[in-house]
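hey so u asked for the seq, here:
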Amino acid sequence: MTALTNERKSRRQRVVMHADMDAFYASVEQRDNPELRAKPVIVGGTSARGVVTAASYEARAFGVRSAMPGYEARRLCPKGIFISGAMKKYSRESKRIFEIFRRYSPRVQGLSLDEAFLDLTGTERLMGAPRSIGERLRAEVRERTGLAVSVGIAPVKMVAKIASGSCKPDGLLEVRPGEVRAFLDPLPIGRIWGVGPVAEARFKMLGIQRVGDLARMDPRRLEELLGDWGLEFGRLARGEEYSEVEPYRDPRSYSEENTFDSDITDRQVLNSAIITHAESVARRLRTDHFRARTIVLKLKLGQRTATGPRGYPTLSRRVTLPEATDDGETISRSAMDLLARSGLDAAIRLLGVGVANIVRESPGQLSLFEPRERQARRERLNVALDEISRRFGNTAVTRGERGGAERAGLSTQIKRGELDAAE
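ran it, structure tokens below
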């Protein structure tokens, strides 16, 4: 038996669990307030441009879904109970839930505050059969938090995630290795990872409506029609997705952004938002002991040019620095310069600041372009800012002017380097 055959056999025997909390934010609110139970609760969407972050299953019965504009949710569910949400509370619950997840596997890859992949490969002798593990995990989450979690189990991550979504709410679905194709084939083509509206429309033009249609296509024909990305989607359609559960993967970028309650043209407000985001990104870099060389400014214009959620033009500007930084002042100064050089006088709907080209911080790293005394003073200031944020919260103090960065809604994403909001 060749090494390649051994590798393929090993991959076929992998066991991946996807655990996904049911209507997480809304369920927390219903648990904590008995008056909200069995009622259509909608978290988010309270501001003029807010979007729904979570909807209880009572609200979903009216067609309300996450990422839906708040005004649309109100049209569909006039009697919905809208709640702005409380990130400290959700973060605290997320921490408790992930502590439970880690009792069942040392390899846990968080995707957001309320969902994660767990690698169960090789745990059968110690923990029992995968389905048994999933049932015990679900029971423990409910017992300790009063919340429901749905679980999908499969040989590969994509199938496990689809399985957990297929058994919601409060269910468990296991797809064994020999069942992957039968499970995937009848699904709409849009269920494959990475197939968005544009790719879905292109597939349908080729007569590919279901996952099975794509899985059965000859790879040479698929490459001829769609190139390398067609081959990759073909492998996914056949369940040939072998990415690992990655609990400790180094980040490729960090970013913060917000949608303004109303379009902004005031440069001072925009610069204040840049400072707010730059300081947050820098703090996360320092917490994770990384630095970044590339600064990215993201802008979404207020003037709609097409229908749908993507109808607002989005611009991105970036600059690469002579050396990597973890300093908020450096990041904000670079982003503000990008804004000034953009020459834009249009109203801005969304603004974001990010960094890329991430490198690990070296012990005793010295700047080649900054005097040592100034560098030491800057590092002392950053240490002081981080300690204040750790003790009193991220909004306790920042450099320069701050304001104008109110988000239109909550985020469910786990952000690397972000201090525990519950502390």
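Residues 254-392 form a domain with the Dna Ligase; domain 1 fold (CATH 3.30.1490.100). Residues 402-408, 419-423 have pLDDT under 50 and may be disordered.
lmk if thats what u needed
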